[in-house]
Amino acid sequence: xxxxxxxxxxxxxxxxxxxxxxxxxxxxxxxxxxxxxxxxxxxxxxxxxxxxxxxxxxxxxxxxxxxxxxxxxxxxxxxxxxxxxxxxxxxxxxxxxxxxxxxxxxxxxxxxxxxxxxxxxxxxxxxxxxxxxxx
Length: 135
Known about the structure:
- By secondary structure, this protein is of the alpha/beta class.
- The chain has a single domain (6-134), classed as Hypothetical Protein Ychn, Chain: A, CATH 3.40.1260.10.
- 21% of the residues lie in helices and 24% in strands.
- The protein has helices spanning 20-33, 83-88, 119-127, and strands at residues 6-11, 37-42, 79-82, 100-103, 109-112, 114-117, 131-134.
- The strands form two sheets. Strands 6-3-2-1-7 form a five-stranded parallel sheet. Strands 4-5 form a two-stranded antiparallel ribbon.
């Protein structure tokens, strides 16, 4: 039996206006640094966290969206976006940042980290996780 637990981080909040998105990203990176099996789900307004071209100038706060591009360097390559949440907000995969990782098992080929899944598929992923963190 493996000592590595499966951690699922669930992001439900928009990226700015609360601290939830930033705190989630920090905790994900910490978990990955300790070589845990990390997955991240984006549902409800959490899908806005991955929108490309974010500009926080008028908000007067730091834009941390570029940090998501570092996830692949930490072996965080299982990012799940709930299709129903995208659809409800009129978004598609093309509206999201391109997030990739290099697959060492496939001659370091660059692969997409984002997977769009149905709410049913996401529920199954939650069920197979050892620990769920909700943000």
